[in-house]
């Protein structure tokens, strides 16, 4: 049952011809903003937490939902904590909730998910409390920096102001060490951006985005290999073309007694610790046996596909990233799994060629935007008996679940997992059964 909307005490006034308002933050929204609830409008304010007493400058337009500018924190909430991060103080948007008590973060993530699923697709199934991370720091294994006027930098949340801090407490220790080195360098203008991924063994891989590969880029790569401890490979990408500049073009990850090669330009889970929880829950919900055929859609380099293949009769992984599919096939060979195949294709196009009844189980792990309408239509046509949907966007999940619920599927399980502490983001595992 939905709670009544809480109305915060507010005081409105004009100063220097600008409208201001004092009020209390009473809720957090799906974008990580605090909210003041009035009788006719909601004021959203970034960098606030529930319980804050604030003074905000209001925009001139009259709308039901408006963004207010935080002018003064009149009285901080007891839910506030010291972020202890100079990057956060400079405006970095990587961790929207670093100033928010972790137990309260968990409470609001669960509540946000419940509100979205109940309001937008009328889900009645129990939604479990989010699974926390035991030590919610130094978890992010992927670092991204942009070349701004010859130096690698992060950017502020809402504009292109450079963040100069050389430390990020959310990143793994190897990534933090790489960051400190990278931000001291003069970067060639040919390099636009860098991604660095680390493994639990401390190895690092580097993915450079460049507009051309020349002597400057190659010399820079040589300097990286010599200067960053644990760096085992560097690739450079020009549009759709990748070239290996040094070392090897993959990293290795071990999970579920399987060896994964991770391409330096491919997708992999950003939090290794919580990824194990996610994998265990997903496999348990899929509950496949030796007689089952399974589709793994948006399979990447086989994070879910390989463990599924150890339990199922036949598995097909579908993914449109050529590099990821090649690596997934290599991973299957590496682990001596001969009951799994991978296909490079748009998911909707691949599903069109399949027949109803041939695939009993489906694992669905789409990007943040969720599934295309054609993918949903094809899945409903194929009518698998069980679909396990892994989502990183509650809004996209609610939209897609609405389609499945209208097509005689029922949700029998819903479990959020805190894969991204100190942000509003989460992963959610939902199990759908055909009526």
Can you tell me about this structure?
The chain has 435 residues and is of the alpha+beta class. It has ten helices and 24 strands. It has helices at 86-90, 102-121, 173-182, 215-227, 272-286, 305-309, 322-334, 347-352, 373-382, 394-406, and strands at 11-15, 18-24, 27-28, 34-37, 42-45, 53-57, 65-67, 69-75, 142-148, 151-155, 162-163, 191-198, 204-210, 231-238, 241-247, 250-255, 258-263, 293-297, 314-319, 340-344, 361-364, 386-391, 409-417, 427-434. It has a seven-stranded mixed beta sheet with strand order 11-10-9-12-13-14-15. Strands 20-19-18-21-22-24-23 form a seven-stranded mixed beta sheet, sandwiched between helices. Strands 1-2-6-8 form a four-stranded antiparallel beta sheet, with no helix packed on it. Helix 2 runs parallel beside helix 10. The chain is globular. The two termini are 25 Å apart. 42% of the residues are buried. Mean pLDDT is 92; it is low at 1-5.
């Amino acid at each position: 049952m939905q709670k009544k909307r809480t109305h915060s005490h507010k005081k409105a006034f004009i100063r220097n011809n600008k409208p201001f308002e004092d009020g209390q933050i009473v809720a957090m929204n799906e974008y990580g903003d605090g909210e003041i609830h009035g009788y006719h409008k909601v004021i959203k304010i970034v960098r606030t937490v529930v319980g804050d007493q604030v003074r905000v400058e209001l925009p001139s337009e009259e709308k039901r939902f408006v963004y207010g500018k935080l002018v003064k924190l009149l009285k901080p909430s007891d839910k506030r904590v010291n972020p202890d991060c100079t990057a956060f103080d400079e405006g970095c948007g990587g961790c929207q909730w670093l100033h928010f008590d972790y137990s309260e973060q968990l409470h609001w993530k669960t509540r946000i998910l419940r509100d979205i699923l109940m309001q937008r697709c009328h889900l009645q199934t129990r939604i479990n409390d989010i699974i926390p991370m035991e030590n919610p720091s130094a978890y992010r294994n992927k670092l991204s920096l942009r070349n701004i006027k010859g130096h690698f930098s992060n950017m502020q949340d809402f504009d292109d102001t450079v963040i100069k801090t050389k430390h990020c407490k959310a990143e793994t220790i190897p990534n933090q060490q790489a960051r400190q080195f990278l931000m001291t360098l003069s970067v060639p203008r040919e390099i636009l951006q860098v991604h660095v991924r680390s493994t639990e063994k401390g190895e690092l891989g580097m993915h450079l985005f460049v507009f051309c590969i020349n002597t400057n880029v190659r010399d820079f790569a040589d300097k990286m290999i010599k200067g960053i401890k644990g760096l085992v490979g560097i690739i450079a990408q020009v549009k759709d073309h990748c070239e290996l500049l040094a070392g090897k073009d993959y990293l290795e990850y071990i999970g579920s007694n399987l060896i994964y090669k991770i391409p330096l330009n491919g997708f992999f889970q950003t939090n290794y610790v919580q990824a194990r929880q996610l994998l265990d829950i997903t496999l348990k919900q899929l509950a496949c046996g030796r007689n089952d055929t399974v589709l793994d859609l948006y399979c990447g380099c086989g994070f879910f596909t390989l463990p599924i293949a150890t339990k199922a009769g036949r598995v097909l992984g579908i993914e449109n990233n050529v590099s990821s599919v090649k690596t997934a096939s290599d991973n299957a060979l590496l682990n001596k799994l001969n009951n799994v195949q991978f296909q490079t294709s748009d998911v909707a196009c691949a599903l069109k060629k399949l027949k109803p009844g041939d695939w009993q189980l489906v694992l669905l792990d789409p990007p943040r935007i969720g599934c295309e309408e054609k993918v949903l239509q094809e899945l409903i046509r194929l009518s698998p008996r069980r679909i396990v949907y892994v989502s990183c966007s509650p809004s996209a999940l609610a939209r897609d679940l609405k389609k499945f619920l209208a097509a005689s599927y029922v949700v029998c399980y819903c479990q959020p997992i805190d894969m991204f502490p100190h942000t509003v983001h989460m992963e959610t595992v939902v199990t759908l059964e055909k009526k």
